[in-house]
Here is the input.
Amino acid sequence: MKTLCILGRQSEISLAELESLYGGDAVTKLNSEVALLSCTPDFSRLGGTQKIAQLFTVIPQKNWNEIERYLVNTLPTQLADMPDRKIHLGFSVYGMHLSLKQLQKTALTAKKALRSTGRSVRVVPNKHLALSSAQVFHNHFTDENGAEIIICKGADNQLYIGKTTAVQDIDAYTARDQQRPKRDAKVGMLPPKLAQTIVNLAVGQLALTDDEATAITVLDPFCGTGVIAQETVLMNYAAYGSDIEQRMIDYTEANLAWLTKAFSLENPHYFTTVADATTHTWGIDFTTIAGEAYLGRPFATTPDQTTLKKVMQDVDTITSKFLKNVTRQTKPDFRLCIAVPAWHVNNAVHHLKTLASLEKLGYTRQSFVHAKTEDLIYRREGQIVARELLVLTRT
Here is the structure.
């Protein structure tokens, strides 16, 4: 069954995650916001996809009046199996030029068509052409009496129409980010969604079922407060976190204990140890490495060139030593994903010099069919220190 995937704010990262899990041939980029997947994903594992929709049909490009007539004629049949209670209806449009007024008119026309069949209908008004994840989540559009209809124009000038089946649980993400007992802004506040994506980029296609997942151990050598470890155990993998500071290990263990209780996890597998990632021999058979490496000093204002150069040198030294240490403990084809810093200063992006020496260190950087490696940089507006995602394979 084909699935429409509504991509996150940084769509290149979302596409790389889908491609890592399901392969490049399974993914078709329809436009900058939507991809088509040739299967139904395990949505609970995806960090970079905001919502998914079951594809109903693909039709040739039409003008909006024709699309409206098509929806009015087909929705009563497509939604006929919904329980005989009030339908909560919404519409999201991607890749098309359309006024909100036109979309609202279509929504009301569709409401009348459904009411003519004896159904009670509530339409959720649009503030934008596409409903946000929060609107979809809080209006219960993925419940049995909810229906968000997705209309997407692809690069092939075809129209892809579907019904949303899952949306990111924003309340759960907020809880994992803000309600855990130990947080520390000085070591970075890695968003849980991004942590999920990093784990998926590292694991790749190794585990797509729960049975396969239980055989995988994910090592985070810079575990900090344990965000990567949290997402790892929620995916049913074993998590092994190490950090150079005992305080960070204490924080990780406290947060994992909280997660186990808050999310009713049964026997989660996790281990922690104090270790210097540049020299330590972990001594376990880890399957992959997923983590956020040392990002250097945080900057609230633009640093001068001398300060920036010094910070970059320090981070380069640690990153290079870490990769050399991993090289001696892994075999060819071993895959990992780490987030390293990239600095946005004076309209230029400054990358680690280590990236130019990956081959000498024994690695190749993973290339993707649907995403450019140079675009795999996670950054919020105005941020100086961004996170560049490195997906590497041992040579």
